[in-house]
IclR family transcriptional regulator
Amino acid sequence: MSSSNPGSGSGAGEALIERAFALLGSFDSEHRALPLAGLTHRTGMPRSTVLRLARQLTAVGALERLDDGRFVIGLRLLEVASLAPRGHGLRAVAMPFMEDLFHVTGQHVLLAVRDNDEALLVERLSAHDAAPVRFRVGERVAMTTTGVGLVLLANAPVDVQERGLRAFVPVDTDDTLRTADDLRRGLAEIRRGDYAVARRTDPRAPRTTVAAPIRNGRDVVAALSVVVPSPEFDPAAYVPAVRATARAISRQLTTTDAFG
Amino acid sequence: MSSSNPGSGSGAGEALIERAFALLGSFDSEHRALPLAGLTHRTGMPRSTVLRLARQLTAVGALERLDDGRFVIGLRLLEVASLAPRGHGLRAVAMPFMEDLFHVTGQHVLLAVRDNDEALLVERLSAHDAAPVRFRVGERVAMTTTGVGLVLLANAPVDVQERGLRAFVPVDTDDTLRTADDLRRGLAEIRRGDYAVARRTDPRAPRTTVAAPIRNGRDVVAALSVVVPSPEFDPAAYVPAVRATARAISRQLTTTDAFG
DNA sequence: TCTTCCGTTCCACTCAGTGGCATCGACGGT
DNA sequence: ACCGTCGATGCCACTGAGTGGAACGGAAGA
């Protein structure tokens, strides 16, 4: 079946679980509340199917329904998701230390983990008067364009690194990483120094990120970073603080063990 | 649970979605990683069914599998859950203000919303040296035994309040709320003053909570609180700070509108 | 008023999901 | 080393849970 349809081919159904998560996945940060028609359009599934599915999801609390009939992601998912060891488990351990770092630097503090070939932002602390950051908690970000991403990529299995190098596309707001070879050298440098510095020369919001790895035993399980607007102090001044905090979290993590 | 299926005709299963969430729900804070057998036992479903379901959930990222074969909640759920307006949507707006309150008071800061007849903890800020708190982010807490719960209950629809009053069981670490009538008066008092103070005389960790409602327009959508160890200063000293912060969040919330 | 779009209900078909059974493998006790 | 136990996985005939096309009612808009 050629997928002339947006979404999935017609046919009699993918696995239900897959469909359910496709439905949940049709929400995004610009569409936190969707009417039935929106869900139908975004999933490419028949109306009746979407309605039935959405109702079942509502019944278990994965979705909630607003007064105007639109659907939104429900609290049940928050409840379940809070048990993810690599998500809130990690977060619970890291938060107090991130607080400290945030307090001392007054800059954005980010915590991210690797999920396959992408990084996923687990936590972000921001002052309301701080420079805006693009990234939302729960959002996926490319590994080659962020400080945390670079740290995670540098410490990822070789196959992930190779895919990352192969898929690398230079960003025009980054004048240090132009080629895949630059990236390769950069990753080696990050492994050697155990931290990363990424500069963005975006004229609207130039900023520099200092990132360091967080370990559970030997494995790098997350990355911590501070994002500072570039016309600020020398970013190098933040390196010790970020590294020290990352190591503190690592120690705590190794002793407590986030997994049951 | 009970051996095999209860005789009621449904030999072949509840709705699949229901089962999937029952499976996800069998994780809890003491069991963040479960082997197949654990899932089988906790759900009461047949082995093969659990395995198939768990695999499908793993395929979509709702679960992840550790090297030792155990299952854990996956990052995909965190990603989806972060779009819940009443969860991370609210959180995103409230966080900077909570940060401020946290820095000023140095005490636990809690953010909770009501979900039917319970309160659900959406965010918690804690210093590492602060007194331990029982409540985890994502956890459900009774409405009559916490500061945030009382605020939410006081501003809930009448039917919720009535169920709360009817189901009320006094806690022996609370010497101010002994009867349902105490509770009724307490709720009225909370509505009048627009804040709540709850004292716990637990000998091991006596503490006092100051809580205030957060509004989106007219509706109370959440509650904010500060938890202080009781041998501290007069809790009344925290009331203005908590109320002011709650109002600041309310204003921000009303102007930005957490829903898309 | 007429048209259009949306949410909803209904129903006969059928394939995805079911679960009992057999097999394989990993420990652990004697 | 041997055996016993338990947990994980593969297999497969059965069946009812899920499917989606069609039709209905109602609200918004022209």
In short: The radius of gyration of chain A is 21 Å. Chain A is about 40% helix and 20% strand. Residues 56 and 62 of chain A are 9 Å apart (CA to CA).
